[in-house]
Batch of 3 targets.
Target 1
Amino acid sequence: MSSLSPPHPLPPLERDGRERRSEDTRRALIAAGLDLFGDYGIKGTTSRMLATASRTNVAAITYHFGSKEGLYLAVVGSIAERMDQHLLKTGMPDPAAVAGASLSAAAAVTVFANLIDHLAGLMVDSEEVRIWARIIVREQSQPTLAFETLYRGRMERIQGMLASLIGAAIGSDPAAADTKIRAHALIGQVLGFATSRESLLRALGVKRLSPTHRETIRRVLRQHVEACLCRTRPASA
Amino acid sequence: MSSLSPPHPLPPLERDGRERRSEDTRRALIAAGLDLFGDYGIKGTTSRMLATASRTNVAAITYHFGSKEGLYLAVVGSIAERMDQHLLKTGMPDPAAVAGASLSAAAAVTVFANLIDHLAGLMVDSEEVRIWARIIVREQSQPTLAFETLYRGRMERIQGMLASLIGAAIGSDPAAADTKIRAHALIGQVLGFATSRESLLRALGVKRLSPTHRETIRRVLRQHVEACLCRTRPASA
DNA sequence: GTCTATAGTCGGATAGAC
DNA sequence: GTCTATCCGACTATAGAC
């Protein structure tokens, strides 16, 4: 017997099978948590609901995540991971890079508009993002430990990036409160389509947004962003 | 004994005392509900929490409102009443009136900006409105029966009013989806300061907004509204 | 109209068989 | 690792004294 082999290696197939099954259970619980925590909140979601939706059982929650709260944190963690993947796809560079590279105002506006358009696309097109939105909205008005996970390096980075671009676009200090507030207002326009969805649907008199509606939303947001960044001083018509 | 007198009139003082006390209990429960339902949701708020916060008792909820859900509906009803009072104070005329009176574009922008400023003031200055916001945000992402109360004649009226003003400002049809979406985007900017408050506070690195921050918010929103309404076509810097 | 005591239900977590 | 059966605590709603 080679000394390099572990003393009691499990048969690979059986071990893989077990690990695979365990991982499947974890995934199923997290997927159920994404749906249910968003709809009903932490307390409103019962272990039994999670067990049924995930086609597992109540004991699995404690076994894999320690508690229902542990599962919630894992759910938020999975959102954070997916956010990171989406952020990579935007090709969003480091805020510091933008601050360093002296971007022209026009270029900054273009980058900003593209970024907003990308976020708007996610917000109105992606069912996945809409599911997160409910959890994030809850964390905004009643932050738990999980807010830190969502904010640090993610929302923080978007906010910093937008502030840098606004700085370049209108010649303001990216670190100034004024600039940060501008970034917040502009991103608020986008988020409104996730957070106030029900109002929008009622105003439009529809049950769901059509592709045309979605295109209009993106076009309007782009126009608004460009208008706000190219015209920083109030002026009458 | 006059035949006009009821057979067994209660002594006025005692009757007033009872009615007063009953009304006080109802008020106290509704006030507790405003705070607690916003923070913890319907299910997350327990009868015991409501009884303790209102300095009444669990039985009073069932007695006065039929059930915890009944109290929730009463809480939303009280929000609706207060919204109406605030709407009156904005001096907001009927949307139809604006649609009828052919307002000049410049005048429409001014009225719109004042309206947004008024709403922004409520959103950032009024503790009361911030408490509503949490309940309304919940209703947006998970509407209950109560959403109807909030929407009909209230949010609906604001949305309609904004759409009419946008119509006058940029010469579009107030009933068109494009116009409604513009209204939604612009109001979203304002609402973002209520719904994404935690992000804003973190970005600014403060625990609460200073008076200067609030002034900045209102100034930025006014500038953005004016920019968006005076410049409907995208243009490079 | 108020409030204490309690009935009946359902919650999260666990023990122990498989 | 999974899952059934079960514990115990907390919940809502109610009954009945005041």
Target 2
Amino acid sequence: MPPATAAAPATTRPRTKPAVVRREELMDAAQALFLDKGFDATSVDEIVAQAGVAKGTFYFHFKTKDDVLRALRERFVVKFHERLESAVAACAPDDWSGRLEAWMEAAVDGYLDQFALHDLVFHEFRPSSRRMQHDNPITRHLATLIADGAQNGAWTAPYPRLMAAMLFGGFHGAVDEEIVAPSKTTRQRLTAEVLRFCRMALGLACS
Amino acid sequence: MPPATAAAPATTRPRTKPAVVRREELMDAAQALFLDKGFDATSVDEIVAQAGVAKGTFYFHFKTKDDVLRALRERFVVKFHERLESAVAACAPDDWSGRLEAWMEAAVDGYLDQFALHDLVFHEFRPSSRRMQHDNPITRHLATLIADGAQNGAWTAPYPRLMAAMLFGGFHGAVDEEIVAPSKTTRQRLTAEVLRFCRMALGLACS
Amino acid sequence: MPPATAAAPATTRPRTKPAVVRREELMDAAQALFLDKGFDATSVDEIVAQAGVAKGTFYFHFKTKDDVLRALRERFVVKFHERLESAVAACAPDDWSGRLEAWMEAAVDGYLDQFALHDLVFHEFRPSSRRMQHDNPITRHLATLIADGAQNGAWTAPYPRLMAAMLFGGFHGAVDEEIVAPSKTTRQRLTAEVLRFCRMALGLACS
Amino acid sequence: MPPATAAAPATTRPRTKPAVVRREELMDAAQALFLDKGFDATSVDEIVAQAGVAKGTFYFHFKTKDDVLRALRERFVVKFHERLESAVAACAPDDWSGRLEAWMEAAVDGYLDQFALHDLVFHEFRPSSRRMQHDNPITRHLATLIADGAQNGAWTAPYPRLMAAMLFGGFHGAVDEEIVAPSKTTRQRLTAEVLRFCRMALGLACS
DNA sequence: TATGAATGAGTGTTCATTCAT
DNA sequence: AATGAATGAACACTCATTCAT
């Protein structure tokens, strides 16, 4: 006689999953397709096909197609930010130079690893990416780091927010340049240059 | 035989204008609408309505809708570049510091004056704006300036192209910051900060 | 053996209400929304939100969305009919003129008070409202009144059913006119005109 | 050698017709389908298939699907009105009784002939048919007729607009009744009853 | 009684582009 | 150079309804 539990189909994969899970699955499907063919070129039909659900399910979990992109962006920013935070947290609280170095190194690495996703969530996203660049945890993090360092005499930065914007722009420009026209330069060398650039701009060295 | 002029009514206001004029009119109409409602949200129908011509006329002058945007972008880049060139040309050929200063000043002014148009032609334009940033006359101009200055001992820049990218990124970041969160700072003060930033990064000052 | 009442927590506010109550609540929610935005423009989602229940609950109490509308219509007709009946019942059984007058007066009042709801349940309801007008308690009531009065020599009406239809149409037209183009006329005056119209049509007066 | 004209395909049915013609064709197709399956149940796809054009062509000539219905309604009203006008115009200008009779007769005939179309354009049309009933040429025509007759002493009607509304309602009710429950009565007999009803209401007879 | 995740058929509408004149 | 009627592929989104708990 089979055990009582065998009477009920053991393999009943529940068709309805916790909302959070389904949502995540849809986001993954969308992200893969967006990266592959671009946001506009991807239809909701394709997303649901990839996720293995019906169309209505998509609209049960997201308001619109844009809504997924927003969710994707938020997820990206949070993860990227965590990466930076833990890198910085590994340094001594008063080693400002080290903290800045850690931030930049993690940022270069992260950006280089994810630039396709970065472009997706920042470029394809309407309301101008400018505003978005301004108030997101990542840039705020850098601004705080600059400000704190300045306050503790680690460097000079009369306008920390502005300095942060310029350093962020510089880092961004460097990595973009590398992506478009990959030099023989190693990633390490690139990071070193970015760091040197930052230190110079902050008046930490005068070579 | 009747006189030739009698055949055609003398008062015929030529319905057909020189191609270049019509083209320019269509570009102006498109630019105005694109700036107002965005590229995607603007239909060719609206463009021709604004320009006062029939639909077919549009496609007589432009291959596709994207084609106008490309034309708009080219026009923008050329004009912006001219602005920079003449600013720089006003300086002594060997006054490298002055030339850089002139470039940056003109760039800040120009960007601040035209950022909406800048965003339109660079942001809405597919093939990633990254590639575009890389090879356009403006950034090439800066790179050349950096390289020449370095070659003449005006400053140090082991990787001029990279330095140019970082300085351009820095300038871009500063102006973007100012656009999003306008400080009490005057435009002059902003320019000064950008310049200080550049000089520091190039090792020209150590304050 | 523990007391029976101890088994169930005494304070359990019953999550489940008597079916009739829930049903009524859902009907009220639906009616409010239908009146506000129209039948088609109202989704079942909105109805359940308004009623504070889950989607499934709606389909537990009603077969389809149309089903609520039908229920609403029945409720309306019953209430309206009651209004007429009691008004007529207040007259002497053989005061035919008075009974007709009472019917019309109550009808004008009732219609004027509820025309929005009337339109909802009669207009938005498929199977042509024509058929519905034909066999509902209200028009049947009037037809009977006409027929009985004729039979008792109160007035002449060779085709009572037809006469009823025409008088009903006349009354309807008058009130509709008043709704669309409200005159300075009081409701009383309107009722008087409708009555005069009916009496004339029935040959009760020759002014 | 074939005649010159044969060189050009003689059968070249011009693919592009005058806008008015195409528009009319689309309206005819739509009307046929709407009458057959109802407005909602008819898709634009079906309309264009029936009309033998592409979908875009539909939207070149009409703003929306509702727009055709509106056009259909306007066409119906105009034609119906013409019918009434010419019937009335055939009577002597001062034969008020005859003119009213002509109007009613033509209305009954017209309505009976077209009630399906009537229902379509008046019932399926949003913004409440009430308002529509109020200001359309047909009811205005009747109101004018009543008013003019009253002014010339042909009958009494202290509130012509209201009387017109009631007579129109009465006529409408009679015909609707006949449609729903066709009696053995001939159309002629029905018309006679409606007329008698009108004359009574106007105080023209006291039988 | 009640829940709420899942379904999926259904459709109006947009719009870049073409082409005969 | 210019017209404007015609095309037709493409898609996001809605929503009534079901059903396993």
Target 3
Amino acid sequence: MRHAAPQDQDEAVAAIHAAILRIPKGWIATYGQIAAMAGLPRRARLVGRVLQRLDPATKIPWHRVINAKGEVSYSSSRNGGDSLQQHLLEREGVEFDARGRCDLRRFRWLG
DNA sequence: GTTATGACTTCAC
DNA sequence: CGTGAAGCCATAA
């Protein structure tokens, strides 16, 4: 058989969603961390791609997912507001720097 | 088929 | 801590 896993990618996306949903409130996780706990060690980019393509009314706490720099990633065509994500995190107790960065070693979810 | 781009990561300077 | 370069993977043209 040539195709052993035709919808393998779909499972990966589902795993990413589950991992993000697993993040407790007031904590944050990086793309690489999410990818790793989802079983995708080298697919941090895939996580970002999934988050950009998910629905505007999703129940996924996408605002808890940030990059390795501890800052909220921004896109040219992101849907919604620019400071929305930071605002949501601040609401959950995450402190942000004046530059829009937070201390990863303090708020990063260990899993 | 190749080339370019992107909600990324990591190392080196 | 900032900037630059290389790496990895999926989507689009």
